[in-house]
Amino acid sequence: MLAFVIPIKSPKVATSWQGVCQLFERTLRSVCNQTSENFLVVVVCNEIPQINFSHPNVKYLKVDFPVPNSTYGAKGDDKAKKIVAGLLSVRDLQPNHIMPVDPDDCVSNKIASFVESSPNSNGWYVDQGYEYDDGSNKIAIRKSGFNTICGSCNIINYKLFNLPESLLSYEQIKFDRFINGHPLAISDLAARGNPIEPLPFPGAIFIRDKVGESISMQEPLLAKFQRNPKETVRGFKKLLLSPINTRKLTKGICEEFGLCGLK
């Protein structure tokens, strides 16, 4: 079974809580649009988003984590710790793989079925994916390097996460650095002797939303470089060399990824 984990920011740090809910509802509809029913979605949040969608495979996990300050690092750590809480909450269900999903992206409906066919794999990273400006009638496809720009990009065997026996206090929660720095999964897991492979099809859509709630889009380039200089340079080189083609947004793409206008 594949478990998607979606961390939601606190309403107290949201520019618009209504906007967060709208983006999340589209993401949740996308994730639940899988061609296989063998999946679970764990939504980790301070407050349950107000949306008009439900699905029997969705579980909400409320946490009482403190509200992070306004810095990118604090927001990123809060997101990572919520993912850890989600990982621990599904331990007894013994999922084969975990895919963290940002609450403003869309994912392919083929992912759960594909993962189901290789339950013992170390996992995959989304090398190919789409970039989309919300509301546009065009979409761009990136043939490689997608995992360097979008957090919804890693599908990792549950056994490869370093997890405590139970959820510690907020200050004590530790996490694999690739949970907060998604491009690091390839190198970190390879160094452990557990390499992951590129997903053989476009796996997600990175959406540049007009609401402005994306954490990754709020981080200045200099801060990215200071945090992980080698990975930042490597990622930009890969992006520059990666072919990207803009095309008309088709009905087929919208149906596969659950991409729709915000309600």
Task: Show the helix and strand layout.
Layout: E1 2-7, H1 17-31, E2 39-45, E3 58-62, H2 72-89, E4 97-100, E5 106-107, H3 111-116, E6 123-125, E7 129-133, E8 138-142, E9 154-157, H4 177-180, H5 185-191, E10 197-198, E11 204-208, H6 221-227, H7 229-241, E12 244-248, H8 251-257
Helix pairs in contact: 6-7
List keywords for this structure.
about 260 residues; alpha/beta; 7-stranded mixed beta sheet; 5-stranded mixed beta sheet; 8 helices; 12 strands; about 30% helix
What does this structure look like?
The structure is a single chain. The protein has 263 residues and is α/β, with parallel strands linked by helices. It contains eight helices and twelve strands. It has a seven-stranded mixed β-sheet with strand order 3-2-1-4-9-6-10. Helix 1 links the parallel strand 1 and strand 2. Helix 6 packs across helix 7. It is globular. The mean pLDDT is 90.
